[in-house]
Each structure stands twice: as structure tokens, then as C-alpha cells.
Design brief:
Elements (H helix, E strand, L loop, with lengths): L3 H25 L8 H7 L4 H5 L5 H21 L7 H18 L1 H10 L5 H24 L8 H28 L1 H18 L2
Helix pairs in contact: 1-2, 1-6, 4-7, 5-9, 6-8, 7-8, 8-9
Length: 200
């Protein structure tokens, strides 16, 4: 029983470090390159050696955050693909994905910045997560008999276009949602219409 406590503490410190990095990203929005290890450890009252017991570098912390985003988004999207109609699948997918994005602004500030950031490893990790989302969605659509007018490769191409469009929407959505939730909702309604058009 005593052996489980250090593991829980280590896991808690890892989450503290990741959370502190995200809080700091919300403050200056400059991306990982604008953060220092010392700022992160100071923000969560840990020492630099505590950082290195979880991450070999700032880049590794960024990779962990990207991985968490990808796995959470894939689970959310998979959970709504059993809706009754194609239109309801589209609506549920848009609501699930962008509900998560709006509720985790700092994570998606990170994604938006690092897609064109200085770390080739993080850019590659983001591309890999996007590729997995596209492949899983297209394969699920195909297995469930959704959008039957498209072949599997056509579904993959359509979903890739939709995901790319959605990624480009994130900065505007976060800006507008801060100013007015109604404006953010209007932007999402427009996006949902665009998705319907692509899949029609």
C-alpha cells in the first residue's frame, strides 16, 4: 500500500507541470518557445529536478500535451458516431469536438501555435494525431454504412478536408467565443453547414 503513494505523487506532479504550462500559455499565448522550465516549475511550486523526473525537455512536455489532446478527441468523436442519421452524426461530431476545444482553450492555443512552431517533432506529432482522427472517422463511417455515396478513399479525403478546415477555425472560434458565445455559436453553425456540403 505504501508503494502506491510515490506513484500517485509522481503522476500528480506530472499533471501539475502540464497544467502550469497550459496556464502560462493562456497568459502570453506565445507557444512553448515562450515558456521556460523555471517559470513552469515555479508556477506549480516544484523544483527543476522534479520537472526532469517527468520530462527530458520542454519539447517532451509538448509532445505529452499533444498526445493527450489527440486521444481525448478520438474518444469523444468515436462516442457520437452511432447517431441515427448522417445529419445527426455531423451535428454530434461538431458539438463534441468544438465543445472540447472551447472548454480547453489553452490546449488549443498550444495546438494552433505549434502546428507552425519551431519543433519538427511536435509538428509531426500533431500531423500524426490528425491522421489518426481522419483514418478512424473515415473507417467508422465506412463500417457503419454512413455516407455510402463515397468510397473509403473518398471518405478519407472528405474527412481530411473537414479536419483541416476545423483546425483553421480554432483561433477565430476562441477569439469570438471570448467576446460573445453567440458569435462563436454562429461560426460553428457555419462550419457545420460546410461539413454537410462537403459530405453531400
Amino acid at each position: 500500500m505504501s508503494s502506491s503513494k510515490p506513484k500517485q505523487s509522481r503522476k500528480g506532479n506530472r499533471e501539475k507541470l502540464m497544467g502550469a504550462a497550459l496556464e502560462l500559455l493562456l497568459e502570453d499565448q506565445s507557444g512553448l518557445s515562450g515558456l521556460s522550465l523555471r517559470r513552469i516549475t515555479k508556477a506549480c511550486d516544484l523544483s527543476p529536478p522534479a520537472f526532469y523526473s517527468h520530462f527530458a525537455s520542454m519539447e517532451e512536455l509538448g509532445l505529452a500535451l499533444v498526445s493527450d489532446v489527440g486521444s481525448t478527441l478520438r474518444a469523444l468523436l468515436k462516442g457520437v458516431r452511432d447517431a441515427d442519421t448522417e445529419a445527426s452524426v455531423i451535428a454530434a461530431s461538431v458539438n463534441a469536438a468544438f465543445g472540447y476545444i472551447r472548454g480547453n482553450e489553452s490546449l488549443f492555443i498550444l495546438i494552433a501555435r505549434e502546428r507552425a512552431g519551431s519543433s519538427a517533432l511536435i509538428r509531426s506529432a500533431i500531423r500524426n494525431e490528425v491522421r489518426q482522427i481522419v483514418d478512424e472517422m473515415a473507417s467508422d463511417f465506412h463500417a457503419r454504412g454512413l455516407f455510402e455515396r463515397f468510397s473509403l478513399p473518398e471518405k478519407q479525403a472528405a474527412v481530411a478536408a473537414i479536419v483541416s478546415l476545423g483546425l483553421g477555425l480554432i483561433p477565430d472560434l476562441l477569439d469570438l467565443s471570448r467576446e460573445s458565445s453567440a458569435e462563436g455559436d454562429a461560426l460553428l453553425s457555419q462550419f457545420e453547414y460546410q461539413v454537410q456540403f462537403i459530405l453531400s
